[in-house]
TrEMBL record:
Pfam families: Polysacc_deac_1
Superkingdom as given in the UniProt entry: Bacteria
Name listed for the protein in its UniProt record: Peptidoglycan/xylan/chitin deacetylase (PgdA/CDA1 family)
Stretches assigned to the NodB homology domain: 38-257
InterPro entries named in the record: Glyco_hydro/deAcase_b/a-brl, NODB_dom, PgdA-like
SUPFAM superfamilies recorded: Glycoside hydrolase/deacetylase
Gene3D superfamilies named in the record: Glycoside hydrolase/deacetylase
């Protein structure tokens, strides 16, 4: 199989690198337990480490390395922790939508979906004072209805799907793809309650991520990390992230970009590509 790059990045760079953070704090727990009487506080406190401590450690690392990242924030987190969102804005990072209470889009009706996008967008824009352009679906699930809602509310890209390892089009919207291998939660997330496997060592996760970065260089792909401040804001994991940044910084043919910058580049340079629809992907249409 040819290792020729399948995607061309600005200025002849070999690979694009984006650091993204799903700043969701306690909202996934609140959504998951919305219909039950919550009598325990262990997971809530664990998750609140992100807005209290983890987010600020991450911002310090990004500032030290002069990196602009993308933070996807639920509306309720912006409501509860406006000072943290303001700190992200002060450091000139991008902020995108991540639902309102981290609600799964396949568990709500279209009216509720519309409300979550509109309310979260308004809340974030009230704090940031600038338009919000990007969306990342809670739990990385999507439906055709979500793409229609994004267009109605003026959002210009999505970052929830895994159809390629470089940007592509979905329903006429630029898709900035994620992948599970580059998500910290599958390696580090541990909330007790009989969970079988302990968190993996940061040194092991570093090796996995470094190997994927090396592989993506060969294919001209997008290395998009997804991290959570309540997970990756812990001390040893911060050190592993810094080690990875140092490794990538040793190469000079890397385009460091926010998710919005990647989406804007795709919109400008790959506008003639086929705008494949979500329904064609779902039902195996002409390009399915």
């Amino acid at each position: 199989m040819s290792h020729a790059p399948t995607y061309r990045w600005p200025n002849g760079n070999a690979v694009a690198v984006s650091l993204s953070f799903d700043f969701d704090g306690e909202t996934p727990f609140l959504w998951r337990t919305r219909d039950i009487n919550r009598s325990v506080i262990g997971e809530m406190e664990q998750r609140r480490f992100g807005p209290r401590v983890g987010i600020y450690r991450i911002l310090d690392v990004l500032k030290q390395w002069h990196i602009k990242a993308t933070f996807f924030v639920p509306g309720l987190i912006a409501e509860r922790y406006p000072e943290a969102v303001e700190a992200i804005v002060r450091d000139q990072h991008e902020i995108g939508l991540h639902g309102y209470v981290h609600e799964r889009v396949d568990e709500i009706d279209d009216g509720t979906l519309d409300w979550t996008i509109a309310a979260a967008k308004q809340k974030l824009e009230d704090i940031t004072g600038r338009p919000v352009c990007g969306y990342r679906s809670p739990s990385w699930e999507m439906t055709p209805a979500v793409f229609a809602a994004l267009k109605r509310h003026g959002l210009t890209y999505d970052s929830s799907l895994m159809g390629y390892d470089h940007p592509y089009w979905m329903e006429g919207v630029p898709e900035v793809p994620v992948q599970w291998l580059l998500d910290d939660a599958i390696f580090y997330r541990y909330v007790g309650g009989g969970q079988a496997n302990p968190p993996q060592r940061p040194s092991h996760v570093y090796r996995l991520w470094e190997e994927e970065y090396t592989g993506l260089r060969a294919y001209g792909g997008l290395f998009l990390l997804t991290m959570h401040p309540w997970i990756s804001g812990r001390a040893s994991r911060i050190a592993a992230l810094e080690r990875l940044i140092r490794r990538i910084r040793s190469h000079h043919d890397v385009w460091w970009a926010t998710c919005q910058e990647v989406a804007d580049y795709h919109s400008t340079h790959y506008v003639s590509q086929f705008h494949e629809t979500a329904s064609e992907r779902l039902w195996g249409g002409p390009h399915g």
